[in-house]
Amino acid sequence: MQMTNINLAVGGRSLSGLHRISISITCLLIFQGAYAIDFHFSANSGSGTVGIAESYNVEESIGVSSRASASFDGEFRIAEENCLWGSGNADINQAFYGSGGGADYVINYALETVGASDITGRGSACLMPSKGSVSRSAATAGAFETSAELWGTEGGDVAGVGSYGFLADISASQAVATGGSVAASQKVEAQGISAVARGEGVDSEGSYVDIYAQVYYGTLDASQGVKAGNSAAGRQSAVVDGDFAYAYCQAYNPEKDYLAYVDNYILGNAYFEFLGEAEVDEREARAHQISYAEGDFLWPWAQSTYELEERFWTGAGSFESWAWTNANDYGQDIVEL
Fold this sequence. Notes:
Blueprint lengths: L12 E3 L8 E9 L3 E10 L2 E11 L3 E10 L5 E23 L5 E23 L4 E10 L3 E10 L2 E22 L3 E21 L5 E21 L3 E22 L4 E23 L3 E21 L3 E3 L2 E14 L3 E7 L1
Parallel strand pairs: 1-3
Antiparallel strand pairs: 2-5, 3-4, 4-6, 5-6, 6-7, 7-8, 7-9, 8-10, 9-10, 10-11, 11-12, 12-13, 13-14, 14-15, 15-16, 15-17, 17-18
């Protein structure tokens, strides 16, 4: 997952010194037939700041509306809504930020599609100095490729989700929330040549979880969630039907070399139901999965820092796998159910 922050200093509107006034200010943009537009909206009250920066690079056949409002009643906030429609190419980057509330954060969204015959999208955000939440949904049909990523950072913790489709119709509903920790989730549905759903959580010490599901020439239906805050954890459920299916959950602490990894790989006439989770902190890395698989070649895998177990089947099978590493113990196990 590529996590690149966009530049927030794009100029625009700033509101300050209104923390004793109850006021609402709304900014509405609707544009169609534009090539590139930047939009910046921010609000300040006392030591707190919240803001939005958006960059749109779209073809004339794509329309976008964006509405942002600032409210100073109680803890001040910015609320934002937008939508997207049309066909063609789009490259959209958005950043949402808050500071001065004890937990500075940034949330980023990136959507890129090439050659879509139809594209729709919708999103909302609520930003306060101490916490923020952003949700985005996008669907494309007939596109050469589409990618959508949403991630957040706070105090060294990072959590994000991403989806990718190549010659595939794909829809992704994604959300991120900050406030003491960072949590990200997504629901991805896709059909076509290739599609991927992925989530990653990284805590401030560098330990991370990574969850992943993929299909070639088929359908993917995946729900994923990751969280980071003094530890990292991830979970996913996926149903994959195609020529190739693959899913894994991984947890790793690089400082102590604690690794836990479980997966299942199905090649040829693949059908796959996968439920998995992983978590890591300074004490341990652990991963677990339950799956049912059908195909020409089934390859479940479980790995800790020092041990690996892999098995090979054809036909159909149900599997449960564990892997773990800590200061006193390590191991892995695969059980055919």
